[in-house]
Structure formats: C-alpha cells, structure tokens
Amino acid sequence: MADARSVDDVRHAPAAGGPPEGRYGARSGLGGDARSDRRLKIVGAVLGVLGLAGVAWFGVDYIGGQPVSGQVIKFKVVSSRTVEVHLEVRKDADAQGVCTLRARAADGGEVARKDVPVARGAERVDTVASLRTTRRATSAELLGCEPRETEGH
To answer: Which residues have a Cβ under 8 Å from the Cβ of 101 and sit 6 or more positions away?
Structure first.
C-alpha cells in the first residue's frame, strides 16, 4: 500500500529555493517575468520623462508669463535715514510696471517702503532707488514687480 501523503508531498514540494510549483502561476520565480520587468521599466521611464517635462513646462510658463520681473543687485545703507537699492528689472520693451522695495531694521521691522516706476522702452532696466527710512535700516528687499496699464486705457 502506497502512502498518499508522501506522493502528495513530492508533488507540492517547492523547487530548489523557489515557491511551490503552480502556486503563483506558470511564470513565477524569484527573478519574475523578464517581459513584465522590461515593461515596468519602460513605463517608469516614460512617466519620469513626462513628469520632468511637465515641471519644466510649468517653470518656463511661470517665469515667461511674468511681464515684469526684477531683482535687487545690491543695497547700501548711506546714513541712518537713507538706503540706496540697485534694482534690475526685466520686461517686454513695450511693458511698463512698478516694483515695490522695502527696507528693514535690525529687529525685522519695516522702516521704509517705496514703489519704483519702470517705464517702457528697454527690456532690461537698471536703476538705483533711494529709500528714506524712519530709522537705521540693515537690509533692503524687493517685494515684487507687476505690470501697470497705461492711464486712460
């Protein structure tokens, strides 16, 4: 008489180091299906490239979509009541705008604020603005630039 248990154990015994045969499908194994791995790598690469392209497109659109942008090149505390700010503005030649500057004291309090008009004509405008402060300033910053419509339109 044959032992049913021993025949069953042999049929379902795991292959050397792998899962039991037939349990996870015919293509199972520690390495997985090579075609599936290749497809996943291709899908991952395509999604990665699309993601990077999307981030780049949004970045270019954001920067290019601003008709007037600027940055503080440097500032100099001239006296206890005056700060000079060197401002560089980039814009379309036919655009005009206004940039808002702010000076702060050592305690972080605002001691001056000034709107600097930017006329049309050039695409790059360098200007030095003088801010009169209520007390000694230690820093100056650009709060932002925005386009300004022509009056009467």
So the answer is: 72, 85, 87, 112, 113, 114, 115, 116, 129, 131, 140, 141, 142, 143
